[in-house]
Amino acid sequence: MNEQTLEQMKQLRLHGMIRAFNTSLSSQSIDYTNDELVAYLMQSEWDDRQNRRIERLTRAARFRYSAVMEAIDYAPERNIDKNQVQRFASCGFIDKKENILITGSTGVGKSYMASAIGHQACSTGRKVMYFNTAKLFTMLKASKADGSYLKQVNKLEKQDLLILDDFGLKPLDNINRHSFMEIIEDRHGKRSTIIASQLPVEAWHEIIGEKTIADAILDRLVHTAHRIDIKGESMRKKLRNNH
């Protein structure tokens, strides 16, 4: 009887339930009532599906770091408002369609923080994509050549959270400027974006170039943005010195 039940569970792909059912069969000491057993099996299946969904979302996001909120360093010299960052863990900023702009010199942990917030968003079931900005623009240029540009831009628009890392390492050319405008325009008021950059926000205007487009992009980006300016020395250098 149990073999048949397990086989049917397997065909229905109830993986969490299979594990729980096997556990309940092997642990004779736990005596479940019928409704307790059903609740236990359902909860196990629910948890299993949630975990697999989070794994899928995390894989699809392609984060640079396997980062967690708990590991963010709040040392006083880093100038990070712990309450502000911990509020991001609830992902309320995504519900409110707000942006986060993270700035600071090289190695201070901008990418790590952006990735940690992204991982947190995945764990709450949200769709996230992480990009190095220069690589994103290269990919979009290639997609214009092969005709898949609209498909790529639509995919970006659908993400609950888009993370653009290393923004502004070199000025935008005309094609990238218009692509950037399109991405920001599509997401404005509908989705959240995190941008991490070595340059202070005040310098972004020059990097984007072409005054009217730069004004339009920054107006949409900065208007509903939380800002974090990380200070202190490079974390990478610090880690090297400690080893």
From TrEMBL:
Keywords: ATP-binding, Nucleotide-binding. GO terms for molecular function: ATP binding. CDD domains: AAA. Residues 96-229 form the AAA+ ATPase domain. GO terms for biological process: DNA replication. It comes from the Bacteria. Belongs to the IS21/IS1162 putative ATP-binding protein family. This is ATP-binding protein. It comes from Flagellimonas lutaonensis.
